[in-house]
Design brief:
It is a single chain. The chain is an alpha/beta fold. The chain has 2 domains: 3-26 and 285-388, Aspartate Aminotransferase, domain 1 (Alpha-Beta Complex), CATH 3.90.1150; 29-280, Type I PLP-dependent aspartate aminotransferase-like (Major domain) (Aspartate Aminotransferase, domain 2, 3-Layer(aba) Sandwich), CATH 3.40.640. 42% of the residues lie in helices and 15% in strands. The strands form 3 sheets. Strands 2-8-7-6-5-3-4 form a 7-stranded mixed β-sheet, sandwiched between helices. The longest helix has 24 residues, at 45-68. It starts with 15 loop residues before the first strand and ends in a 6-residue tail after the last helix. 44% of the residues are buried.
């Protein structure tokens, strides 16, 4: 990536920020637009929220619909993908013995959501194991489908998993689920802005994602997509004026009316999503994405040589701008993370997954090869030779 991209972000100088995947980082032009919306709101709050809000939201979601490959009538803004998962989980009429099938690669907060719902309803949350190092796409589908039974009511999966950064073959799974009459909910927290999306072609019944990660919007902007055939299944988490919308404010869609206005809030992050899309269009973002991917691809074998563990992906299309490397199990993983930051100024998440430890690398436009070199040097210092000797190539 060209070094000029670094000047477009507010990140601290001297920081090796390899953790874009957790909360993103908003570019200066987009953040300035966000602040403009906040000032506009404060200039006349009643006008803004009472009379302009619905039209502003409609205008903001139109370019998002184009970006995501669907009609704006199928989209609503939500604060984040976890909110979207909760909204669907609370809407479904589950009963005792119904099964929600997922993988063992899912985001912990969403695992908690389904555990909570199952405790309330008597439904069962099935976490189907998926091999890691990953199999090829067809083998992943076959391995996952072994968890399907006649009681499976919903398949819930991440498009790109949080703990393992693995891109799952969602298209094939959604197609197979539809043929078997099984609903699908896809957690796309890490997808928009990292890989192309066409929600109408994807085939998921429900899809929720974040705009504030890889799409680069301000924090607190996400979306929920619902196929028109299932929009009537959704209930709001918060019942407000949209429950009985007057004709002047109604969108003509019960789905949109129920979920658009849920009480007083600051919509500036939502309204800044078009600026984030425009920023990527103006800065040749496909080239940025490819450059980030190519750097990860170049460096994964270098980490392999250091740690003795294999590359975890069957093919390089199973990761894009985010990938994991396995490291030896640490007695204190949080201490290890703190040492990387305090001693080497490296911000990177440490992952404890299935009794194994990983580092999850995120590469964004502001990153350089020097950030990965710094991580390599830190690991050479922090991981003693005796701790990696004899590690098998499993």
């Amino acid at each position: 990536m060209h070094k000029d991209y670094q000047s477009l972000f507010y990140l601290d100088d001297g920081l090796h920020f390899l953790n874009h995947g957790s909360f993103g980082a908003c570019p200066k032009p987009v953040f300035q637009q966000y602040q403009n919306w906040q000032r506009k709101l404060e200039e006349q709050p009643v006008l803004f929220l009472g009379r302009q809000y619905h039209e502003l939201i409609r205008q903001a979601i139109q370019p998002l619909g184009v970006f995501l490959g669907t009609s704006p009538a199928n989209l609503v803004f939500v604060p984040n993908a976890t909110y979207g998962v909760n909204l669907i989980a609370r809407s479904l009429s589950l009963k005792s013995g119904d099964e929600i099938l997922t993988s063992d690669h899912e985001y912990g907060a969403c695992d908690h959501t389904w555990t909570f719902i199952c405790a309330k309803t008597g439904a069962i949350y099935i976490r189907q194991p998926l091999s890691f190092p990953a199999l090829c796409g067809d083998e992943i589908v076959e391995q996952f489908w072994q968890g399907v039974t006649h009681r499976t009511k919903l398949i819930f999966l991440s498009h790109i998993t949080s703990p393992t950064a693995l891109r799952l073959p969602i298209e094939a799974i959604c197609q197979k689920a539809k043929a078997h009459g099984i609903l699908t909910l896809i957690d796309g927290a890490h997808t928009p802005g990292q890989i192309p999306l066409n929600l109408d072609q994807l085939g998921a019944d429900f899809y929720t994602g974040n705009c504030h990660k890889w799409l680069l919007s301000p924090k607190g902007a996400g979306f929920l997509y619902a196929d028109p055939s299932v929009q009537d299944l959704i209930d709001p988490l918060v019942v407000s004026w949209g429950y009985q919308t007057d004709s002047a404010k109604s969108s003509g869609s019960r789905f949109l009316d129920l979920l658009t206005w849920t009480g007083t809030h600051d919509p500036a992050a939502y309204l800044s999503v078009p600026a984030a899309i425009q920023f990527q269009q103006e800065n040749r973002w496909q080239q940025v994405q490819q450059g980030c991917h190519d750097l990860i691809k170049e460096y994964l074998p270098k980490f392999l040589r250091l740690t003795g563990y294999p590359v975890l992906y069957h093919h390089d299309n199973q990761y894009q701008q985010m990938a994991c490397i396995e490291i030896p199990r640490m007695q204190n993983l949080e201490l290890f993370k703190s040492q990387l930051y305090d001693q080497f100024r490296i911000e990177i998440p440490t992952i404890d997954w299935n009794q194994r430890h990983f580092l999850r690398i995120s590469m964004q436009a502001y990153n350089q090869a020097s950030d990965l070199d710094a991580l390599l040097e830190a690991l050479e210092f922090q991981i003693p030779v005796h701790s990696i000797a004899g590690i098998g190539k499993r």
